[in-house]
Amino acid sequence: MLWLLLLTLPCLGGSASGNPEPGAGREQVGIVGGCDVSARRYPWQVSLRFYSMKEGTWEHICGGSLIHPEWVLTAAHCLGPEELEACAFRVQVGQLRLYEDDQQTKVAEILRHPQYNESLSAPGGADIALLKLEAPVPLSELIHPVSLPPASLDVPSGKTCWVTGWGDIGHGEPLPWPLRLREAKVKVRSNVICNHIYCRRFPSNTTERSEQVIKGGMLCAGDGNHGPCPGDAGGPLVCRWNCTWVQVGVVSWGTSCGHGDFPGVYARVMSYMSWIRQHVPPFPRAAGGPRDGGDPASRVDTLRPSPVPA
């Protein structure tokens, strides 16, 4: 059984022709309550596929990001039990509409972070994994790696970033056709505040346990005014720095639909850069992405586990 933790987001911002700025014009992008993404945006976005015996097709199960022509970054929990081999997965790059003109790439190797605990799943921390592709993907205007941050990067509370995915748009409400990629703006929140929110939601008899709900390797964003939906886990959270889009988070976990103020929880990419660099060489021409349209306030929805049959 694959266990996926899923994200949904509210719609903010607008779209424009060409290479639009997030938040500019009129968009139909989102995750829950979001809007569709226009062409040439988020060229690092990846759809992770798992073969469905029932449907006889490679189905989208999670998001991911291209960080090098041969490497994809995603969430460890998206990859299910450790006994699942690389051949059980495919990735699709350069796609705006899910399943449109599929040209999937085989996965040659799965590297889960060594501190990831499968029995604890995403809330246990280190929910991050690397996929080595069988061959480098050809780069283009629609396919390009995202920049990774230095380990020392501090993402300030209040920073507005963007998260993307093909997940459901509401509880039990799948993304409608034509299954366009969706985005939402989310404001980063401090781990201290995020931990306080989750400790209220999941009270414990021991102070020590409750203090560790949000760990140092996690990052929180949004206010969770909507609910979780399947399909966005493993996707990228990106922020704009010095004219470059930088991935600071990987969609990981959260609480369920409609629980007010709960932020989405992400794997904090900066915490795992030394491990990533042990396997993935720097790619000097990472994508700058669409131009920044500013950092307005925004909201993110939260996540919860959802079983997907293997």
UniProtKB/TrEMBL annotation:
Residues 31-281 form the Peptidase S1 domain. Gene3D superfamilies: Trypsin-like serine proteases (2.40.10.10). GO terms for biological process: proteolysis. Residues 1-18 form the signal peptide. PROSITE patterns: TRYPSIN_DOM, TRYPSIN_HIS. Keywords: Disulfide bond, Glycoprotein, Hydrolase, Protease, Serine protease, Signal, Zymogen. The keyword Plastid does not apply. CDD domains: Tryp_SPc (cd00190). Pfam families: Trypsin. One of its GO terms (molecular function) is serine-type endopeptidase activity. PANTHER family: CHYMOTRYPSIN-LIKE PROTEASE CTRL-1-RELATED, TRANSMEMBRANE PROTEASE SERINE. This is Peptidase S1 domain-containing protein. It comes from Aotus nancymaae.
